[in-house]
Amino acid sequence: MGIIADEQTRSVKAARIPWYRSTRWRDLALRAMAFLILCFAAFLFIAPLAWMLSTSLKPAQQVFERNWIPDPIVWGNFQDALTSAPFDVYFRNTLVITTLATLGAVVSSSLVAYSFARLRWPGRDAWFLIVLGTMMLPGIVTLIPQYILFAQLGWVNTIRPLVVPSWLATDAFYVFLLRQFFRSIPMELSEAAKIDGASELRIWWQIVTPLSRPALAAVTIFAFNGTWGDYLKPLIYLSTEDKYTLQLGLTTFQQAAGGLPRWDWMMAASLVVMLPVVILFFAFQKYFIEGVTMTGIKR
């Protein structure tokens, strides 16, 4: 009887609590507030893309009008933009540079990260701190020394300055990201492989690399996006149009007709240039998020 009386007392007290002070309504209010904040943030990210799409479908005389729905819709802007310049050459150059640079960044960074995470050698931690210290050094500081070096090597107006540094693990962030993920893999796997006679290179390739696909996918997306959208380095090192990348090719629309920018063509071409990055991200979205969120987690 006492238990029943206590339950009735609690029920009466709960009924007397105002609805706006109950835990259930508080949780619903917090969820609704979070949902509204996320919707507003999503709008801030989607609005520029929607404006680009709207501008790419407008006639040239309506580019600066405030209407978001073009009238009429000019689908020919895409064809005119891609045929007004040798975009097939720009695309081929960009694809070659991006593929080689991304592959080099993933391979070299994973090898260096494996050394920092799985091997023991004198001064390892000190050298890792030095590598992390380079992340605080702005890239613009080393721009002139690098250009002088590549000019002395005769690499100016070639793709080598855009590709070779990626094969030397020059991005400390990639090394740090992979090193933290490699440390979460149990050392017992490497020790068992050593007992079977496997070398460190074979352990890296056949054991650590397959288990690190999320982190490697994250590095791949970062490297691909950074190289595909790079404008400064191609501008500095490439001087002839037959070696231009897509980012340099987009600047041709700034003086396309009588010195006036063709913003409709530029937006149309920019959407096409941006498409491979979007496709790559959505294709590897699962691995990318998993690689970023699980980095540094001890298993």
Keyphrases for this structure?
mainly alpha; 15 helices; MetI-like fold; globular; 68% helix; 299 residues
Sequence-ordered SSE layout with sheet pairings:
Layout: H1 2-16, H2 23-56, H3 76-83, H4 87-118, H5 124-133, H6 143-152, H7 160-163, H8 172-183, H9 187-195, H10 200-211, H11 213-228, H12 232-237, H13 246-250, H14 263-283, H15 285-293
Termini gap: 50 Å
The level-1 CATH class of the largest domain: Mainly Alpha
The CATH topology annotation of the largest domain reads as: MetI-like fold
Average pLDDT, all residues = 85
The outline comes out as globular
Put simply, the count of helices is 15
Instruction: Tell me the domain tally.
Output: 2
Residues in β-strands, percent: under 5%
Helix content: 55-70%
In terms of per-residue confidence, which ranges show pLDDT below 50 for 5 or more consecutive residues? Answer: none
Query: In CATH terms, what is the architecture of the largest domain?
Result: Orthogonal Bundle
Q: Biggest β-sheet, characterized?
A: none
**Structure summary, number of beta strands:** 0
Name the CATH superfamily classification of the largest domain: MetI-like
- Determine the structural class based on helices, strands and strand pairing: mainly alpha
What is Rg? 27 Å
In sequence order, what are the helices and strands, one letter per element?
A: HHHHHHHHHHHHHHH
